[in-house]
Write a structure and sequence with these properties.
Radius of gyration of chain B: 16 Å
Mean pLDDT of chain A: 92
Number of helices of chain A: 3
Number of helices of chain B: 8
Strand content of chain A: under 5%
Structural class of chain A: mainly alpha
Distance between the termini of chain B: 13 Å
Order of helices and strands of chain A: HHH
Largest sheet of chain B: 5 strands, parallel
Oligomer: heterodimer
Chain lengths: ~60, ~170
């Protein structure tokens, strides 16, 4: 199932994406945007961010340096 | 508040912590570090978002042009990092006992994979209490204002839990 969204993108970023599609590195812009979003979500998972902030709190309060 | 002696810490900065501390008017906290190393690409990013950012008067500031190695480039592509984050990781390779300051989860993940010490804006703010640069109450007030004045996004429940932890520490 897919859903249509409207988003504003920097022109240069969109141009680069369109070049990749035109050159045949990826099937279309929809696939490219989904893949980019998936990768972002994989590396920015909420629990990871939360654990990093908690590490910061611990360092701030109890660190030696 | 009586200030402790400056630490001998060297930090390598990504744009996030400098932008966020500037938004919070807390750039003075960098004076506690012996050296603040910033890749040229990161400095450009900071100046793009915060043209009036002033770190130049701080004599520990070093802005350095850098060319990432193939190893770092390969790693940063996996984590889809920006040029600034990539250059900062390359600087960390050269100063591997430094602390890498970033607020980007993916950059932090990549740095941890390389066994680097990494912290972010929240760490620097809270550390300033331990280092007697700011009072607990000042930092609590800043954290309360964070969603209003900063582009550092932190889940509300987590922010409240941090504030509560700070409130519980003795003065």
């Amino acid at each position: 199932m897919t859903k249509t969204v409207t988003a504003k993108l920097p022109e240069q970023l969109l141009k680069q994406a369109e070049i990749l599609v035109r050159e045949g590195w990826i099937s279309d812009l929809n696939t490219l945007l989904s893949e980019a979003l998936r990768r972002y979500l994989e590396s920015h998972q909420s629990h990871l961010t939360e654990s990093f902030v908690n590490e910061d709190v611990n360092w701030g309060l109890h660190g030696k340096d | 508040m009586e200030k402790t002696e400056r630490s001998d810490l060297v930090v390598v900065c990504d744009a996030g912590p400098i932008i966020h501390l500037d938004e919070l008017k807390q750039l003075h906290l960098f004076i506690d570090f012996e050296k603040v190393l910033i890749p040229e690409s990161v400095w450009k990013e900071i100046k793009f978002h915060r043209p009036d950012t002033e770190l130049n008067s701080f004599n520990g500031l070093i802005i350095q042009g850098i060319k990432p190695s193939n190893e770092i480039l390969a790693l940063t592509k996996i984590f889809t990092l920006h040029q600034g984050e990539t250059d900062a990781l390359e600087l960390m390779r050269k100063f591997n006992t430094a602390i890498f300051l970033t607020d980007d989860t993916a950059a932090r993940l990549a740095a941890k994979g390389l066994n680097y010490k990494v912290h972010g804006t929240i760490g620097i703010l809270i550390r300033s209490i331990r280092r007697q640069l700011c009072s607990k109450d000042q930092i609590i007030a800043l954290l309360r204002d964070l969603p209003l004045v900063s582009t550092l996004y932190i889940k509300k429940s987590l922010l409240n839990s941090i504030i509560q932890q700070l409130e519980e520490i003795p003065n």
